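Q: Convert this sequence to structure tokens.
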Amino acid sequence: MRYQVEMERLTNQELATLHTSARGHKVVFWNGLLYFVLDGDWPDTHLPSHVKFSKLNDAIEKSGISPGECNDFTGVEFDIIQSMLRTNRDTVLIDGGANYGREGIRYALFRRSLGFDVPTDKPAVIGIEPGPVIHMAQVNVALHNVPEVTLVHAALSNKVGFTQIGVSNTHTLGGSMAVGTHNEWHSMVCRSVTVDSLMEETEAPVFLKMDVQGAEFLVLEGMKETIERQPIAGIFEYAPTIMERMGPLDDFFEILSRIGKVYDLGMNRKQKRALSHAEIKTLTDEIRARPPEHRCTDLLVIDSRLET
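A:
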């Protein structure tokens, strides 16, 4: 059984009582709430009546992810992930721009549905998120009980070190190196990592989902060794009006085409359409003409070593 406890009016004494009564079970803090994951019913804690308990479903809704979202395995990407895992069970799934953690959790649960155990000596799913929303992802990973997911609080980039990102003041977008700062954004410094640095100790195939708010070009620059060494498939959000602030779009597609064939998935990821060089230009012009909230699509690239 799982519970959430409202923390706003708890005294230190009451908090100590809660810790004692939880008997060492999993405890996660987030946003004024204390989450407990227990094997059975909540024990008698003799806490004041103002301490409120409720079942986990409410907690999941408040933390951004419902169970139904995480058990939806429809879409082109899951066919590819299944094929890659069947070929090599050590395939690493990377969720770049993890936000609340939903995609990483979905990948972990899908992996389990195929019969793969939780590895004890290597990561199965890596979620990377630079913004404060990483703490919500940590809660969701804990509440969904997916130890396969390793979360990294950093920005994916072309270098290892530190970088400056913009973080929204008004919504849960994790952060971006491409948007800069303006009235609705503030600046923060965070750690930066590369795909090459994350994959340097493995030669296993890699599946990536990249939704890094325009920094996809930098991510590709930071995975050149991985591209050369191991088979890769991945989904990259393509928002040309933002991405061109980070580098020429032709360079972005040149790196993608070196990996393999490029497809347009649209935003629902239900079917793929192969793109020629001329069709990429047409797609870019079409995206630019859309209303601002729809000026993006998802691109799929599949390493020629994975194509059958």
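Residues 60 and 66 are 6 Å apart (CA to CA).
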